[in-house]
Write a structure and sequence with these properties.
The protein has about 290 residues and is an alpha+beta fold. The protein contains eight helices and ten strands. The chain has one domain: Hotdog Thioesterase (Thiol Ester Dehydrase, Chain A, Roll). Helices cover about 20% and strands about 30% of the residues. A hairpin with a 7-residue loop joins strand 3 and strand 4.
């Protein structure tokens, strides 16, 4: 039986997991587009960066976090290829429960990602909406644009199906994660927490034409062991849309289900779906949402 630790540390040199070409679905991860919008280079995907913390989280909180654990994540500042990311997981003392503070800090001392994780059910789980429309359907044809004044608040999105085979699980780790963990690459691999956290972005592009997006926050509740081996369904409801600092932001409550309809994760996903027009001379820190 694993004994949770009080702390765990890790270091990763940041890298792009999709290359840097014109075929990238979300061009904020491409150099040219990112520089046009005031950044010093392409942004590494938020859920990719979050996934890098998995070894340290498991060292501290134990394997049980994968089965029924939770995360509340804020992407404060961008991560760029070549950044030296120090990952720290620390037990929150004096709370009387199994919670840990997680930070991913770059070489300049900037906390790019901060999170709280815990075991069991999250204190906010009851705040999340569960969509009713769960059976996968074809994408709309044509796909509408996601617009602030037409955001489908209170309505379910079109659910989608995606492959979740063992080879898909292994390929994700080879492409996006710096460490080979047999839990995610072995004979009967699990779906990686970073992969699970990224499903809402795929669902948004199943439903809408979105030129570029920036993931800003996630709440993720793991509900059951996510073992690879078959199709995965993703469903969601739009719960909020608003403008902040010129960005158009959407909040979506999502479910990830296996082929048998078992709920693997409940996620609240907050993303910028229209990036503000850059202001000449604006710093990257000013371009953050929070």
């Amino acid at each position: 039986m694993e004994t949770p630790a009080d702390a765990a540390d890790q270091m990763v040199i940041a890298f792009l997991d999709e290359g840097d070409g014109s075929e990238i679905e979300n061009p904020i991860h491409a150099d040219g587009f990112a520089r046009e919008h005031g950044f010093r280079g392409p942004l590494v995907g938020g859920v990719t960066v979050w996934g890098w913390a998995t070894p340290a989280i498991l060292n501290a909180a134990g394997h049980a976090w994968l089965d029924r654990g939770w995360s509340e994540i804020v992407f404060r500042q961008p991560t760029f290829p070549g950044d030296r990311m120090e990952i720290r997981v620390r037990a929150q003392t004096g709370r009387g429960d199994d919670r840990y503070a997680v930070s991913l800090t770059n070489q300049d001392g900037v906390d790019c990602v901060v999170a709280t994780i815990g075991l069991g059910y999250a204190p906010w789980l009851d705040e999340l909406t569960a969509p009713c429309r769960l059976a996968p359907e074809p994408a709309p044809d044509p796909k509408p644009q996601l617009l602030l004044d037409r955001a489908p608040i209170g309505r379910d999105l079109v659910p989608m199906s995606m492959s979740g085979t063992a080879e898909d699980a292994r390929a994700y780790v080879r492409r996006s994660q710096p460490a080979d963990d047999r839990r995610f690459t072995g004979e009967r691999p699990r779906l990686h927490p970073g992969w699970i956290a990224g499903r809402p972005e795929d669902l948004l592009r199943h439903n809408f034409e979105i030129p570029a997006s920036m993931h800003t926050r996630s709440r993720v509740q793991h509900l059951a062991p996510a073992v690879a081996g078959g199709p995965i369904a993703v469903a969601a409801q739009c719960v909020e849309a608003y403008e902040r600092k010129g960005h158009h932001v959407g909040v979506f409550d999502c479910l990830v289900l296996d082929a048998g309809g078992v709920r693997l994760a409940h996620i609240q996903h907050t993303t910028i779906f229209r990036i503000a027009t850059p202001v000449v001379g604006a710093s990257e820190s000013r371009r953050a949402v929070d």
